[in-house]
Amino acid sequence: MPRSNQVHRSTARKAGSRPAKKGAAKKDAVPAAKIADLWLGQHLRGLRKMHDLSLEQLAERCGLSVGALSQIERGITSPTMRSLRRLSEVFNVPMSQLFHEGDYPPVEELGRIVRAKGRRVLSLNTTGVQKELLTPSASGSLEIYLVTIAPGGSSGPELYTHKGEEGGYVMAGELVLEIEDRTFHLKTGDSFRFKSQTPHRFANKTKAETVVVWTNVVG
Fold first, then answer.
1. Alpha carbon 7 to chain centroid distance?
2. Complete edge-to-edge strand list for the sheet that includes strand 200-203
3. CA nearest 42: which of 104, 86, 85?
4. Which residues of the chain have pLDDT under 50?
5. Which phi and psi angles does 74 have, rounded to 5°?
6. How far apart are CA 171 and CA 146, in angstroms?
7. What is the model's pTM?
8. What pLDDT score does 29 carry?
9. Nearest CA to 193 among 159, 160, 170, 219?
């Protein structure tokens, strides 16, 4: 890959690293640039999952190959600035959101732990819904979100479907959940589960925020 097109990673830090013990082999240390690639790959995969896009669908929208996207998400290769710009346009996020601020997490936490300040956030201003990804965006079928729905917000006017199964717990407020031809009114403390292939939508018809811990199991 031409050097001029690669994302500049000279400022990548090996945050979270512990002081090396005397006699410890330096070859065990993970290069800061590698941690940067792993973090970015997981961040991009998280955004793709939050938009309910497959690799094939994302490839079609951004003009990159499925193979190239897969390697980027796994931290094998670094995307070019041009590729990042295309991805930011598809995800409708500013380029700045694709760059990490401050220290990177320890490499042993990547794919396992999500710190409160490291959550990936997707704000859908047109529908009044904000999704925070609580699970690491490494390969896996389990996805947990903290979904905040503004007063009058919803998933949209149309019922929709996708693969998998989902469930949730209403932490605050009220949720109107439509599943096929049935409508359910859920309040704080209520929970739910249904097959994602079943047409569904959700809404907050109150004047206060609704907060739901929402789980998707893909597959």
1. 21
2. 182-187, 174-179, 200-203
3. 104
4. 1-27
5. -90, 0
6. 10
7. 0.65
8. 64
9. 170
